[in-house]
Amino acid sequence: MKLFLLPLFASALALCAGPVLAQVAVPVTVPPAAEAPVADAQDGGGLTGSVTDESEWQDLGIAIPAFATDREQATPANAQGTTALGQALAEVVYSDLRNNGLFRPTGPGSLPRPAYPQITAPAFDQWRGRSTEMLVHGYVRAGADGQLTIGCYLYDVQLGQQLVREGWQVAPSDWRRAAHRCADMVYSRLSGESPFFDSKIAFIAESGPKDNRVKRLAIMDSDGANLRFITNGQSMALTPRYSPDYSKIVYLSYLNGYPRIFVYDIGTGRQTLVTESQNPTFAPRWSPDGRSILYSMAMSGNTDIYRVPATGGQSVKLTDSPGLDVGGSYSPDGTQIVFESDRSGSQQVYVMNADGSNQRRISFFGGRAATPEWSPRGDQIAFTHIAGNLRVAVMSPAGRNMRHLTDGWQDEAPTWAPNGRIVQFFRTAQGGGETSIWQVDLTGRNERKLDTPVNASDPSWGPVLP
């Protein structure tokens, strides 16, 4: 996907066919604010600030009408042409912004479709009459070579000012990525947070009866679209994790009862065996630099945490205490590891230095604690709190300020969005045992289920796509 800076409106018009623009009844004069350089537009006006779990609730009204097109054209991206594709693009942007918990967007289904020249010269009075605070405009054009040009603009309606704009040239198969990038642009500009919509999720797809479950490695977009199975189910796949650069996935495979840790290369489709053993093995995790992998292995009555080069080789034992030490997760700077251990008599969360030294317990709030994972921001640790039900919770790296984000019957195995603001987990339904992937923001107020065609567990949210 090629990123480009959107041209000023006069230049944009020059790219369009003259006769088509001649048929447009609305004026094409651009307000001065739209002619300002992008850097100036970004520096003035609009809402800024950082959103954290302590911030007040934001309830911005954002209008997202259908993306316009200069002329109806056929495209492999949508059988009905570029007009229908413009509607679909806006729907994806609307869905992304609606489900993150910060904004109050209105989607294209209940909004007027803008004319093509209005994309860079909005009818601000019309939108003010709808009590719109922010306006997302976009366009899509299909080139003779089949490539799509997609532009996205964000306006402050009350100020009558453009805040930011971006554009992309994409293959028809990547149109959803452009929509996610548009949502990321809007989200980042209004919240001050890093983007996360243009990312992928790895998970375990489950099918078949409970006593003979087939578990396959699968990946999908952050909104659940474009699901693809990576393994065929002949061996059981468990606990996938994306590499820091998104290029690979590490996962655990059980074939004929023997555990093996594989690294799957997303670009080539090749798999590399990292380590294998006849001993029970659990929970492989990447180091932040992608050069090594943590895993847990049971041997001689103990389960300890080991580190092995990502390309395979000699493993180094990091823990050696009686009991079960499982599930290491590095801090973002790579200096510490959080893990669970029952050395105190029940599952609790511990932290140690990356070399295995200075191991100390941090969870002292009652019940048990398992599956800890460090936030990419470094400021919080998500984990499964077991006290009657299983609930997803967060706490500081020192074990303070624990609070629950979910209140389900069995919610477990949290994983973080790339920007550290959303936590994803899997939920087991009481009674039936069906598993599904859910996500919740740090306020705990906004839960969302990701629809999958089969049962789903063990999610891993990958980095923002390059």
TrEMBL record:
<dbReference type="InterPro" id="IPR011659">
    <property type="entry name" value="WD40"/>
</dbReference>
<dbReference type="Pfam" id="PF07676">
    <property type="entry name" value="PD40"/>
</dbReference>
<comment type="similarity">
    <text>Belongs to the TolB family.</text>
</comment>
<dbReference type="InterPro" id="IPR011042">
    <property type="entry name" value="6-blade_b-propeller_TolB-like"/>
</dbReference>
<dbReference type="GO" id="GO:0051301">
    <property type="term" value="P:cell division"/>
</dbReference>
<dbReference type="Pfam" id="PF04052">
    <property type="entry name" value="TolB_N"/>
</dbReference>
<dbReference type="GO" id="GO:0042597">
    <property type="term" value="C:periplasmic space"/>
</dbReference>
<comment type="function">
    <text>Part of the Tol-Pal system, which plays a role in outer membrane invagination during cell division and is important for maintaining outer membrane integrity.</text>
</comment>
<keyword id="KW-0132">Cell division</keyword>
<protein>
    <recommendedName>
        <fullName>Tol-Pal system protein TolB</fullName>
    </recommendedName>
</protein>
<dbReference type="GO" id="GO:0017038">
    <property type="term" value="P:protein import"/>
</dbReference>
<dbReference type="InterPro" id="IPR014167">
    <property type="entry name" value="Tol-Pal_TolB"/>
</dbReference>
<keyword id="KW-0574">Periplasm</keyword>
<keyword id="KW-0131">Cell cycle</keyword>
<feature type="signal peptide">
    <location>
        <begin position="1"/>
        <end position="22"/>
    </location>
</feature>
<keyword id="KW-0732">Signal</keyword>
<dbReference type="InterPro" id="IPR007195">
    <property type="entry name" value="TolB_N"/>
</dbReference>
<comment type="subunit">
    <text>The Tol-Pal system is composed of five core proteins: the inner membrane proteins TolA, TolQ and TolR, the periplasmic protein TolB and the outer membrane protein Pal. They form a network linking the inner and outer membranes and the peptidoglycan layer.</text>
</comment>
<feature type="domain" description="TolB N-terminal">
    <location>
        <begin position="60"/>
        <end position="163"/>
    </location>
</feature>
